Amino acid sequence: MLELHRPHQAFNCHLLTLMLMAWVLGGCASQPATPPLVSLTSDACTMAWQDVERQLQQAGIEDAQGSQIPGYPYLRANRTLADFDLAALTPAERQDWLHHALSNGERALRVRLARLDRRYMFDPGWLMHCATQQVTALSGDSHRWKALASSVQQPDAYLDWRRTIGAYPLIRPLLAHQVRKLQASQEKQFGAQADHAEARQFTPAPPEPDPAQVGSILRHQHSRDRLGLPVFSQQEAAKLLAYHAPHLIMASDEPYDRPGTPRWKDSRWVIEPPARAYTLITQVRWQNRWLPQLVYVFWFDERPKPHPLDIYGGRLDGLIWRVTLDENGQVLMYDSIHPCGCYHQWYPLSDRLRLNSGAVGDEIMTVLPLEAPANQRAMSRAVVHLASGTHYVTNVSFSAPPDSLTEAAPYSLVHYDRLRALPDNTGMHRSLFLPNGLVAGTDRLERFLLWGTGVLSPGAMRQWGHHATAFIGKRHFDDPDLLNRYFKPAQVSESRSEQAW
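Given the sequence above, the corresponding structure tokens read:
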């Protein structure tokens, strides 16, 4: 992320001292005790959940996606759910909030049970039946709701204590200088390079959804719950994701430039065929409305090192591509990061959004406005051009993807939860992610230089919900208030709105 040339020897000594202090502090810290389980509606349900949680903990099986609510292992919050004023919710709104938290909890339970030794025969259906009964009782009990709401914490991907002992205020000007240099380089390169004959194209596998069917999904009266959050059936979600899935133009056909599937092989993670995008749908708040965001995660086997001391290269790399839709299903913005949380770039449509420079302050954002094409269908499926090796986004276009210079290969769409329980070569399942949300073996040398930023292992790949995207200030990729905070509406063309579908 940063290109720091010849750090001063005194800085290196200071950094070593800080690392030793961090090791001492980390060794002295004790792990927090697991909070007791709040009793469920029956003793049988309480005992069943106590048993499954005990077995999972003894096996060391954890999952870092979403934050567990103390005492309620079947409920998990995320930044969207934690963003609500829980004390102000009506009983009906509480019920929908709990439904989302329960859905997150069920997915976490199922991926953890998939990784548990098969001799433990737990029935996830029965466990979730118990949890659903408890949630129904919770939504109408103001006293218990208040206790639950007080324990929902906003997760933070930054370690403030590191910023404190790492002298963050002193290193911040240096960080800002280096980040601005990187930003200027990215802006200069964006759109400046043409595709070469060795480029390769990856396209979403057919079939392609009917545009008329996709266009009606968000305008359906039942597409939102009582919280205002977009809700979709599995079929509707699949159609939206397939319709807006991007074309990828890779600058080369080298093995490290081919998107693929993570596999555990020879005690490390590798990326092998077939090509896949791992998908999920999240939400963002915009002008008092909740909008859907479609997320596509592509994995590459490595970012090759040009030399042994390169601080950015290492095992595994990737691209996270996100599409924000408005309430009518039109594209409002694209943005992207790498799975390390690095290189966040925003691509707002110039006739829809513009940066609110007054809100940015001294933060640094790479904003690359795009001109919307006349063909609305072309805009739904962007063409994303990636550099070889670094996998930087070098252009986003809307013209028909080139077929004369590139060899097209299909990629399939699968749910992101697959990454949380992948089959290994022993007949078992393991998560791509460690309990702290990182991917084992993907650490980068830059983590030593950027220790004082408070980001855990900068440059390492990480799980959804753990993407800190800024070294100057704090930003999380899944923060539901990013659009409201940094952007404002541009003048919207009435004719374009009428031609949406």
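Residues 1-20, 22-32, 493-501 have pLDDT under 50 and may be disordered. Try to locate this feature in the token string yourself.
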